[in-house]
């Protein structure tokens, strides 16, 4: 089972965007840690079962194959305050989310239905259905505004 936190496990384009996101957050005085990158289907299933058939709080609605993490195109982050992750600081997550969007990433906090404050992804116009049928990002040029 693979549930990685290593940026190197992301698609090369997303690796670069993630690095830029971390750098831009630091320029704004915010330290962030990457808490999740690539998840294989087994790890996604285990996460989905949390709060359902296994103890814990529900943290995802995505089954295996339904998460962009399964395709190496998403990462989760958390802001660090006083050397600790500050999971409850919505203002700080929002600040980071705006930075992520300026870096060209899609931020889960902007979603209408299931807001996912720690989540960022880059799909370059692809849909989940595209990913499930094997389509992948091939344009390795990155334009960051």
Describe this structure in words.
The chain has about 140 residues and is an alpha+beta fold. The protein has a single domain (about 5-130), classed as Muramoyl-pentapeptide Carboxypeptidase, domain 2 (2-Layer Sandwich), CATH 3.30.1380. About 30% of the residues lie in helices and about 15% in strands. The chain contains 4 helices and 5 strands. A hairpin with a 2-residue loop joins β2 (about 75-80) and β3 (about 85). It is globular.
From the structure above, extract its key features.
single chain, 145 residues, alpha+beta, Muramoyl-pentapeptide Carboxypeptidase, domain 2, 5 strands
Order of H and E elements: HEHEEHEEH
Taken as a percent bin, the fraction of beta residues is: 5-15%
Distance linking N and C termini: 36 Å
By DSSP (H or I, 4+ residues per run), the number of helices equals 4
Largest sheet: 5 strands, antiparallel
What top-tier CATH class fits best?
Answer: Alpha Beta
Q: Provide the CATH architecture.
A: 2-Layer Sandwich
The parts where pLDDT drops under 50 for at least 5 residues are none
Q: Determine the CATH topology.
A: Muramoyl-pentapeptide Carboxypeptidase, domain 2
Radius of gyration: 15 Å
Roughly how much helix do the residues carry, as a percent range? 25-40%
Secondary structure category: alpha+beta
Number of strands: 5
């Amino acid at each position: 089972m693979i549930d990685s936190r290593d940026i190197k496990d992301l698609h090369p384009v997303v690796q670069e965007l993630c690095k830029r996101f971390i750098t831009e957050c630091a320029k704004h005085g915010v330290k962030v840690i990457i808490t999740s990158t690539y998840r294989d289907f087994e790890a996604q299933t285990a996460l989905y079962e949390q709060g359902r058939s296994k103890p814990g709080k529900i943290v995802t609605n995505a089954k295996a194959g339904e998460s962009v993490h399964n395709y190496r195109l998403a990462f989760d982050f958390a802001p660090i305050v006083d050397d600790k992750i500050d999971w409850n600081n919505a203002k700080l997550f929002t600040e980071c989310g705006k930075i992520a969007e300026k870096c060209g990433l899609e931020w889960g906090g902007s979603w209408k239905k299931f807001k996912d404050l720690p989540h960022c992804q880059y799909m370059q116009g692809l849909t989940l259905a595209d990913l499930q049928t094997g389509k992948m990002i091939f344009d390795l040029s990155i334009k960051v505004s």
